[in-house]
Design a protein that fits this description.
With 216 residues, this protein is α/β, with parallel strands linked by helices. It has a single domain (2-214), classed as TIM Barrel (Alpha-Beta Barrel). Helices cover 43% and strands 12% of the residues. The protein has helices at residues 2-8, 23-26, 39-53, 65-73, 77-81, 88-103, 120-135, 149-160, 206-214, and strands at residues 14-15, 58-61, 108-111, 141-144, 166-170, 173-176, 193-194.
Length: 216
């Protein structure tokens, strides 16, 4: 965790690839449907990724896209809002994240889901509930991709209670944000933290991820 904080402050360099969706195919390991629900299997996949790419940590989706779609369809975001943490899909995902953070001996950055439909305040409430639960699992940071500044600011204020950094992933790299959602890290992007540009596609290879992380 210290290495990630130093990297965010520009004191060192930390490579944290985001390759969650394509993890099994990347490391050439067979995985059945719903592989992301098995914390033991996920740990093995992450360790293979880290070992093959020389990464210092990894990004983990709190909710796999399939889980996001399931929640958006049933019970739907309005039905999810009042008891999001009691929903079995979310509860299992938080438990999985906790077990990964406890057993993968490198910093894990937890990526929040993206819900593109629905009322903005409702989506913000859901994301804050999920983020708050994730922050108590032992992760090193929260990653936001695509959330608006108001939601990012809410999550940052929540993260301050856990003394955790919040990272925004944009087209130009990774930035830490302030309480109001504004970019706080100046200078060249990324400020020490090297993230692959979003969840890598099927076209990437482990060698390409390693090259990306080691490039000056």
């Amino acid at each position: 965790m210290a290495a990630l904080r130093d990297a965010l402050a520009g004191k060192s360099r930390c490579f944290v690839p985001y390759a969650w969706e394509e993890l099994p195919s990347l490391v050439n390991m067979s995985a059945g449907p719903g592989w992301w629900t098995d914390a033991t299997g996920c740990r093995r996949l992450l360790l293979d990724l880290i070992g093959a790419t020389g990464a210092h940590g990894a990004v983990v989706d709190i909710l796999h896209p399939s889980e996001q779609r399931l929640l958006a369809d049933e019970p739907g975001l309005e039905g999810l809002c009042d008891d999001v943490l009691d929903n079995p899909v979310v509860a299992d995902a938080i438990d999985r994240l906790s077990r990964l953070a406890a057993t993968v001996q490198v910093p894990l950055v937890a990526a929040l889901p993206s819900f593109h439909d629905g009322d903005a305040d409702l989506v913000g409430d859901i994301l804050c509930d999920i983020a708050g639960a994730a922050m108590g699992t032992g992760i090193a940071a929260i990653l936001i991709a695509g959330a608006d500044g108001a939601v990012a600011g809410r999550i940052k204020r929540l993260a301050d209670n856990f003394d955790l950094p919040v990272i925004v992933l944009g087209e130009d790299g990774a930035r830490e944000i302030t309480r109001d959602g504004a970019v706080a890290v100046a200078g060249d992007v990324p400020a020490g933290v090297v993230l692959t540009p979003g969840d890598v596609s099927r076209s990437w290879t482990l060698a390409e991820i390693k090259q990306f992380g080691s490039a000056p």
